[in-house]
Amino acid sequence: MHIESLGSGPDLVLIHGWALHGGVFAPLAERLAPRFRLHLVDLPGHGHSRGAEPALDPAAVVSAIAARTPSAVWLGWSLGGLFALRAAVALPSVRGLAMVAATPRFVRAPDWPHAVEPEVFARFGEDLAADYAGTLDRFIALDTLGSEHGRAELRTLRALLHARGEPEPAALQAGLRLLETADLRRSLPALRVPSLWLAGRRDRLVDPRGMAEAAARAPGSRFVELAGAGHAPFLGHVDAVAAELAAFADGIAP
To answer: Deepest in the core among 132, 139, 219, 250, taking most CB within 10 A?
Structure first.
């Protein structure tokens, strides 16, 4: 599994969302590298980790990342939040958790109304087989839909999508299954590290109200909603995200 490390200072692990790779954090990494030692992960089947082991299984992936990185704050964006949250609950080496447009459960349920319909991810899985390129493009368009800087963000994501090669179809299907089935809400009360929950007010994939509810269940949490931001706030609102992350990390005891 490919992990790029750069910068100097306290350690920060960053895990990307569905269909992308660690390079998506480039604008954020540019601002954080002077203050942090960053570890940018390419999940199995994505970016430079195509063909890498383990498969896209949360327990195995988290263990593999932890074996390659020092004690750190873990940040997960979107799908990456499922891996970061799992690590924060299970691993003593995780010092803090940052959930960026991420949630312990992505699909709607009777007791979890602020989420997407289950059919959304199932439909993307079906569409991948018929129109691989078009399906990826439609999904990343959702990442930027609603953001006040949506057009610029979409251009950036389109340029980055295949910058490290096309993601493997099997990994994409596995990621969609995780988004459709994962439910880590019960782990929130047991979270033993401080957590930061960064939401975009205009996010069309992860409802800020669901993130706020999740944060309320986690001890030592802080919820921040960025006005004007969509599902990829570290692109159009990178300075605000960097400032929140720096303040959060500075408040964690060595």
So the answer is: 139
